[in-house]
Amino acid sequence: MSEPTYFVLAALLDGPSHGYGIIKRAEEQSGGRVRLAVGTLYGALDRLAGDGLIAVDREETVQGRPRRYYRLTEDGRVAVMREAARMEQAARVVTGRIAPAMRTAQA
Amino acid sequence: MSEPTYFVLAALLDGPSHGYGIIKRAEEQSGGRVRLAVGTLYGALDRLAGDGLIAVDREETVQGRPRRYYRLTEDGRVAVMREAARMEQAARVVTGRIAPAMRTAQA
DNA sequence: TCCCATACTTCGCCGCCCGATATATCGTCT
DNA sequence: AGACGATATATCGGGCGGCGAAGTATGGGA
Lengths: 107, 107
What we know:
Radius of gyration of chain A: 18 Å
Oligomer: homodimer
Strand content of chain A: 15-25%
Number of helices of chain A: 5
Helix content of chain A: 55-70%
């Protein structure tokens, strides 16, 4: 799973949201680092819905403009948790080298 | 940076290695999870060398077969460290939700 | 003898990222 | 009034990168 996809799912942990809202939430959660491109977002939304990781929560019409809310499915919740664990484990392959090196230096 | 690329760099933290050796090292370091496809590896090697993150260390001929050793450059070392930090931070967006939820439940 | 491990190269498909473009409304600033 | 930025969605095409497959080659073990 790519980072953009991961952040789409992560944004939905806060509850259902629509496209633009997801972009903003992902930016917030990542401290401004992740800026989902619109093409990435809507492509990911279709793909994730097709995979059953997210689902359409409801559709609203606000001031003549449509707004489609998505929510995480149970599968999606599991997938994003597993992905987080995988990334943490992968990060440790590199970061885990620092602590042992320090210990060796001090010993 | 994608996961395969990341593990190529991470494998070289142990010292210079050649293609096949990198594949094996990445598999070890990830606990058997990451299996670099040959097409991925050699493509990544060319790309990373072009980007200056790795460099050819030496070329040997073992039993008539060529063997090209790569090593991490200083830029590569910085890049893989930064990438690890980025993944750890990204993972925390999701895993960081568990601990606060526990604290709230206990409070 | 045959398969497996080691070892590198190249090719092509496909999945996904992402910028550009189009469309539309509202508030703010000039 | 006009321009611009934020809000909001859809679609398309380029391009990067992952990955499997096939080709080539050798040595060792079953």
